[in-house]
Design a protein that fits this description.
- This protein has one helix and 25 strands.
- The protein has about 290 residues and is mostly beta strands.
- It has a single domain, classed as TolB, C-terminal domain (Neuraminidase).
- The strands form six sheets. Strands 1-22-21-20-19 form a five-stranded mixed sheet, with no helix packed on it.
- About 45% of the residues are buried.
């Protein structure tokens, strides 16, 4: 791959040594960044003003966090959807409870305030995962099935398009999105990443409608135009890049999560900051996250 002309380098802001750092989400109510370490069930709250990181534990793997309009958090945990409020974790909807070989993975809130999150098998069995949508009344709808690694998801600024990643397919799919019902249709492959360049993981969309895609085993976050052209890249000194989100008072900081799991002793020595939280200011502005109505 030829490097895009706009190539930046991210810096460590928290050397968190996460096994699988994921799900960065800016909290506009508290001006903090939430992120998780999936296998540890750790929910992190990072304060960029002083570098402090507060951690609570869900008691099971946790893969995504969303900010609730009414206060607290809604989580995608191993067993389904949960709410964390005043330090108390409460399950609100089970997902695939009978499938102990699966867990929830990445998720995000849509423009209508519904929380979306998907599943995958612990051993990444092909076709074992699905994508779900949690409604305000805790009703769960199955949106897509036959997925392998249900992963990054976000919406265009005009709310007309939903972008979704099944990492195993190495692509980003664009769907026509109905904001009133949450329905999606007309899938179209927008971006393809070659296996020898890595695998698409989490993502976010900036205020101009450009997609920022974390590339697992690719040591990068790539910026793509709404028509799928590669226009920029952020390089990292670690290979397993998992997700990204804009944050900060002006939403000009891009936070990036990474993982250390599965690295050999030699790779760990070569990547001492694997599992760290990184940050870069790429010169563009992000968007306020949608608040969850659950």
């Amino acid at each position: 791959m030829t490097r895009p002309p706009d190539t930046l380098v991210a810096d460590v802001v928290l050397d968190g040594h996460a096994e699988v750092g994921e799900g960065p989400t800016w909290d506009p109510l508290r001006q903090r960044l939430w992120w998780v370490d999936i296998p540890l069930g750790a929910i992190h709250r990072f304060d960029p003003t002083n570098g402090r990181d507060h951690v609570v534990y869900a008691g099971q793997p946790v893969s995504a966090v969303a900010i609730r309009q009414r206060g607290g958090l809604v989580l995608a945990v191993r067993d389904g959807f949960a709410v964390l409020d005043n330090g108390q974790l409460r399950m609100v909807a089970s997902v695939e409870a009978e499938r102990t070989e699966n867990r929830m993975n990445d998720g995000k809130v849509d423009p209508g305030g519904r929380f979306w999150a998907g599943t995958m098998a612990f051993d990444m069995t092909p076709g074992a995962g699905a994508l779900y949508r949690l409604h305000e009344d805790y009703r769960v709808a199955t949106v897509l099935s036959g997925l392998t690694i249900s992963n990054g998801i976000d919406w265009s600024p005009d709310g007309q398009t939903m972008y979704f990643i099944d990492s195993a397919r190495g692509s980003v799919t664009a769907f026509s999105y109905n904001g009133q019902t949450g329905a999606i249709k007309e899938p179209e492959t927008l971006i393809v990443i070659s296996p020898d360049e890595g695998m698409p993981d989490g993502m976010t969309v900036d205020s101009a409608g450009f997609l920022w895609v974390a590339v697992w085993a690719g040591a990068a976050v790539r910026r793509y135009s709404p028509d799928g052209a590669l226009v920029g890249e952020v390089r990292l000194p670690v290979s397993q890049v998992t997700s990204c989100a804009f944050g900060g008072p002006t939403l000009r900081d891009l936070y990036i999560t990474t993982a250390s799991t599965g690295l050999s002793p030699v790779q760990r020595a070569e990547q001492p900051h694997a599992g760290a939280l990184f940050r870069v200011r790429p010169g563009v502005v992000g968007r306020q996250p949608n608040l969850c109505q659950v």
